[in-house]
Amino acid sequence: MQDFKNIGKRAGKVALFLAILFVIFELMAERMEIALIKNDNLVQSRNKSLFRIQREPQDSIDVIVLGDSLSYASISPMELWEEHGITGYVCGQSGQKIQETYHMLETAFETQSPKLVILETNTLFRGRTGLEGIKETIEAWGNYYIPIFRGHDIWKSFLIDKKYPEESYKGFSFRCDVQPYKKGNYMLETEQKEEMPDIVVKYMESIQKLCYKKGAELLLVGTPSPVNCNYRRHNSISAYAESNSLDYLDMNLRLDEIGIDWETDSLDKGDHLNLSGAEKVTKYLGDYLEEHYELPDHRGEEEYKNWEKEAQEYEQKAELHLEQMAAK
Asked: Where do the domains of the chain lie, and which CATH numbers do they carry?
């Protein structure tokens, strides 16, 4: 009987210790989260959007863009602002997996009430099965629900003065190299489909439900990329969009309308667009959004003065970069 009492006491002490440890952990995580939102130079490039979107004024963003590197290489929120007064933010990540897409959207919805969510569709074909898929899902869950995971390298910033500075304009950064794509037409018409992984289909259902719950429309957008896009993927996304009553804009079939020139608009031989290509894509996208969606024009509004200031800075730098690119 005495043994049971001793075991009970030890168990109680262990439980108390774990409870105290949990409280300390939560307080540390909360403080670190605040620190990283204020100073994202402490955060590696891939996770910056998780913190930067939380730094935007409450309910000031009308369009959230999600996806992998094609999203932040192709869509410039400052261009949307200058042409249409649309407030957008690109919450993209290199190699963003669909689980991360969902949790990134959850993060954005914590402080924003966007009217439109744009999903760059290359993410829809990135998804593993089996144990690797389970591992990716757990990692994405932990990254969202346990804030300390998002800044897991922050110790480097304090111990070895490691910083990750990066110029960004609402999630878009200047990419000014020019490496032409020279392999010709990549959108060869076919009736074949490249099916989306099961994990993608599952999370897309969750993304749609979340958008519906928050009152946001969902638009699927394929940005020009010969390396990543083809007609089989187009067919799959088109069928999915139709069956789920979603809008789908595949710019890979509208290259002439957009004015894409693969000699000047390719960053890296057809994988991503450079600044020149991104400006053309964003202009086309802005006109499309104005025609199909009711998004407010915030230009001239007092609370958006910072957008005006940032747009002026962006325009000056963009013009300089474009001149330098043309001279190459």
From this structure: 39-326 (3.40.50.1110)
